[in-house]
Every structure is written in structure tokens, then in C-alpha cells.
Design a protein that fits this description.
about 160 residues; alpha+beta; 2 domains; 4 strands; about 60% helix; about 15% strand
């Protein structure tokens, strides 16, 4: 498995786990709201659906023990912001080529990048004639420099060293 594939799998796992936790927190808040402000931890915990994560149950118990169950809605909103921020984060990509790419070439590259990084990627295409040929692809903090200029520079370094 390549590093890129591992990152995609890790991102998918992160999304599943955080969405599950968020659903559990929302369920706990809905139960707390339905039972009213005077609900005890025992009542809230007993009314939670069976699939709620132990971490959510522990949080509810801890909040109840601290007499802070009324803080659960604020915690849910904060967690929604954190999870929503990562789930909705758009990756910025840039493809730099030596000549302008036609729409078919751009579509092919965009399809490859979407397959690799998901549909939350926005790609900008630009031209840098000094590349001579090839492409430089930047997505987030990752760079794939497959330009002829870089390959020639590497060849030159190898000839000097060797």
C-alpha cells in the first residue's frame, strides 16, 4: 500500500470514527433534552441507544458527576465545528505544466486527483514555460515534481557526482 493510499484509508477511518462520535453526542444531547434539565446521569445513560460509544457514555457520566450536563449542547456544537471543519475541508491542488493543457488533459488529471484525494479537491492549472516539459502537481503539502527541468537538473547532479 502506498503512502497516498494509506492516507486515504486513514482519512476514511477518521471520518467514520468522528461521525460516529458526533452521532453519539447528538443522541446523548437529545436524550438529555427529552428528559429535561433535572435528568440524572443514570437516566440519561439508561436512555441512550445501545450503539453509543463508551467514550460518549463516559463523557455524559463525567458531566453529570460534575453537575455540568447542561454543557452538553455546547460540547456538541464545538465538536460539530471540529468534525465539520475536517470533513468539509477542501484540498487545494495546483498543476503546473510547460504548455497550456487542453480540457481533455485537464479532465484526465482532475479525475486522477479526485480518485486519489476524494471529491473535496479544487485544482488550479497554470503554465510555467521554464519547466520545458512534464508537470508539477501540488496537493496540500505534497508535491510531485515530474518536470523535465527537474529531471535534467537531477541528471546533471548525477553526472557531476558520478
Amino acid at each position: 500500500m502506498s503512502t497516498g493510499e494509506a492516507q486515504i484509508a486513514a482519512r476514511a477511518l477518521y471520518d467514520v470514527v468522528t461521525r460516529g462520535m458526533l452521532k453519539g453526542l447528538r443522541d446523548a444531547d437529545a436524550v438529555r433534552a427529552a428528559l429535561g434539565d433535572g435528568a440524572s446521569a443514570t437516566q440519561v445513560l439508561a436512555a441512550l441507544p445501545a450503539g453509543v460509544a463508551p467514550e460518549v457514555r463516559n463523557l455524559v457520566a463525567s458531566l453529570a458527576q460534575s453537575d455540568a450536563l447542561d454543557q452538553l449542547p455546547a460540547i456538541v456544537r464545538s465538536f460539530e465545528g471540529l468534525v465539520g471543519g475536517s470533513a468539509q475541508r477542501v484540498l487545494d491542488g495546483e498543476v503546473t505544466s510547460a504548455i497550456a493543457l487542453d480540457s481533455a488533459q485537464q479532465a484526465h488529471i482532475l479525475a486522477d486527483l479526485t480518485q486519489r484525494y476524494g471529491d473535496r479537491i479544487v485544482v488550479r492549472f497554470s503554465v510555467d514555460e521554464s519547466l520545458i516539459g512534464g508537470l508539477i502537481v501540488r496537493v496540500g503539502d505534497r508535491v510531485l515534481d515530474n518536470s523535465l527541468r527537474t529531471r535534467l537538473a537531477a541528471l546533471q547532479r548525477n553526472m557531476i557526482v558520478g
